[in-house]
Specification:
seven-stranded mixed sheet; 352 residues; alpha+beta; binds 3-(2-carboxyethyl)benzoic acid
Length: 352
C-alpha cells in the first residue's frame, strides 16, 4: 500500500470518500488536506463540519468540472502509526511517524501591509514548527498570495514576498540546504480575497532535488525578476521506505529564464508540458530504477483566464490523454506574461 497517496476529491463526495478511506474496512488515514474552490458556497460550510480540522482553504475557482471545490487529500496507511495533530505558533500540523503536513494562514489586512516581514514571519513560524516536530526537511511548499501581481509602494507583491521568503530561508539555511524544496506560488483571481496561505509536506530526511536542463534554476534567475530570486527546486524526489514520491513544482512556459510564447496559451501549455517531460527524463538520469511517466502523475493546472480553459484542456488531453488526472483551477500565475502553470505529483514503488 502506498505510503503517501494523493487524491483529488469533489467536495460533495468528501464525507463518504473519507468514511470509506478511514472507517471500518478502510486502510488509510488523512495526513493533510487543502480545499480549492469558490469560498461562498454551501459545500464550503459543510466542508468545515465534515473535515474535522481547520484545513487550508484557497479561493481558486474550479474550472471545467461540476464540483464547486476540489479537496486535495494526502493520506498514509492506517497501520503506519497514530496521527498526532496540533497547533504551534499559529501553524496547524498533522504528523504521522516521519511525515508532517503543516499549514499557516497569515491575514493581510489592508492594501499597504508590510508584506516582506509578514512573509518572513510566516515562514519562520513554519520552520520553527517543523523543527519542533523533528521534521526539519521540507519536501514541498505551496504558496498562495492574494493580489500576487498587485503593487505595494511601487513594487510587485510577488517580488516583496520573495524578499521575505528569502530572509526566512537564510535564517533556516540548514533546513533547505543544499537545495530548496519544490514549490509553487499562485494568486487568487481578482475579487477573491484571503490570507497568505502556505502549506507544506516535510519529513525527517531531505528529498533529492531535480533541476530541469531546459531551465535556469529559479534560485539563479537574473535580477530582472526581483532583487531576491524565487527559491525552489524544479522537482524533488522523496524516499519513504521502499517507495518514492515525486513533487514537480509549478511549471510554466519558461525556457532558460525567459517566458516564451507570449499571448499564445496553447503554445505555453505545450512548452509547460515539454518542461515536465524534461523533468521526467532527468529523473531517469539521476535516479535510474525509478521512472515515472506522465500517466502516473496527478496534475493541478492553473489557468489565468477562465475563458482559455478549452484551449489549455485541448493541449493537455492531446498530450496526456483524456484519462489523465487533472484539476483545472482559475488562478493568477506569478509573472504577468504567463497564462498557465502546471504542478504534478505521484508516488511509486521502487523498482527491484
Ligand atoms: C517559474 O518557473 C514560474 O515562487 O515558489 C513556479 C514555481 C514559479 C514556484 C515560487 C514560482 C514559484 O519561475 C513561477
Amino acid at each position: 500500500m502506498s505510503q503517501l497517496q494523493l487524491d483529488y476529491i469533489p467536495v460533495e463526495d468528501l464525507a463518504s470518500w473519507t468514511e470509506a478511506l478511514e472507517g471500518r474496512g478502510g486502510h488509510r488515514q488523512v495526513l493533510g488536506m487543502a480545499l480549492f474552490g469558490r469560498p461562498d458556497t454551501a459545500e464550503q460550510a459543510e466542508f468545515q463540519q465534515v473535515s474535522k480540522r481547520d484545513w487550508p482553504r484557497l479561493a481558486l475557482p474550479v474550472l471545467g468540472h461540476a464540483t464547486s471545490a476540489w479537496a486535495e487529500v494526502w493520506s498514509v496507511p492506517k497501520n503506519a502509526a497514530p496521527i498526532e495533530h496540533g497547533e504551534l505558533d499559529g501553524v496547524g500540523y498533522v504528523r504521522c511517524q516521519d511525515l508532517v503536513f503543516a499549514w499557516v494562514n497569515t491575514p493581510l489586512p489592508g492594501t499597504d501591509v508590510a508584506l516582506a516581514p509578514l512573509t518572513r514571519a510566516t515562514y519562520d513560524a513554519l520552520f520553527k514548527t517543523l523543527n519542533q516536530l523533528g521534521c526539519a526537511h521540507p519536501w514541498r511548499f505551496w504558496n498562495y498570495l492574494p493580489d500576487i501581481l498587485g503593487t505595494l509602494q511601487g513594487e510587485e507583491r510577488y517580488r516583496i514576498f520573495n524578499v521575505g521568503r528569502h530572509e526566512s530561508f537564510l535564517r533556516h539555511s540548514s533546513m533547505i540546504d543544499p537545495h530548496p524544496p519544490a514549490a509553487c506560488a499562485l494568486g487568487q483571481p481578482a475579487g477573491f480575497e484571503g490570507p497568505l496561505t502556505v502549506y507544506a509536506l516535510a519529513s525527517t530526511a531531505p528529498a533529492h532535488p531535480i533541476e530541469n536542463p531546459r531551465q535556469i534554476s529559479a534560485y539563479r534567475y537574473p535580477p530582472q525578476y526581483g532583487v531576491r530570486s524565487p527559491t525552489f527546486s524544479r522537482a524533488t524526489v522523496a524516499q519513504i521506505d521502499t517507495e518514492a514520491t515525486v513533487f514537480i513544482s509549478g511549471t510554466a512556459s519558461i525556457v532558460g529564464h525567459e517566458t516564451v510564447h507570449l499571448n499564445d496559451v496553447s503554445a505555453q501549455t505545450e512548452e509547460t508540458l515539454n518542461n515536465i517531460e524534461a523533468l521526467l527524463q532527468q529523473f531517469k538520469v539521476e535516479r535510474p530504477g525509478l521512472t515515472w511517466t506522465a500517466a502516473d502523475l496527478k496534475f493541478k493546472v492553473y489557468v489565468r483566464h477562465a475563458e482559455d480553459l478549452p484551449l489549455v484542456r485541448a493541449v493537455v488531453e492531446r498530450r496526456l490523454g483524456t484519462q489523465a488526472s487533472c484539476c483545472y483551477l482559475h488562478a493568477v500565475v506569478c509573472r504577468p506574461d504567463l497564462l498557465v502553470e502546471i504542478e504534478a505529483s505521484a508516488t511509486r514503488s521502487q523498482a527491484a
